[in-house]
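Hi R.,

Here's the chain you asked about this morning:
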Amino acid sequence: MIKEVSGLKKSILIILLLSFPALLSPSAANIRHISAAQQTPAYAKWGKLAMTNTKIKYPGARILDYLHVGRTTQGSNCTETFKLWLARDNREFGVFVRITFDEKTEKIRAITYQETPR
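And the predicted structure, written out as tokens:
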């Protein structure tokens, strides 16, 4: 019986030692990173609004690319800036969309569009 228990302990020890490197593998370290990447960014709501309003402002244009440039804050107002790349009438061009809103109430103050060749 004593030999069986020590054999069992030896087996458990071998299993633990063999599985320990798996706990240190890059895939195990990335579990937290993957779940963080799946969270919706805070600017997503404003990005959807930027795309919807750009489609209205530029009817017939296709949105080819989307970039969140960043957020600025001035007093109680925040401005989310996006750069959209559009194609219309055999022409490609960029549009900076700036959405300014009240930080607390999220009431939209202004939406501006600025075309750019790049």
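The mean pLDDT is 84.

Let me know if you need anything else.
M.
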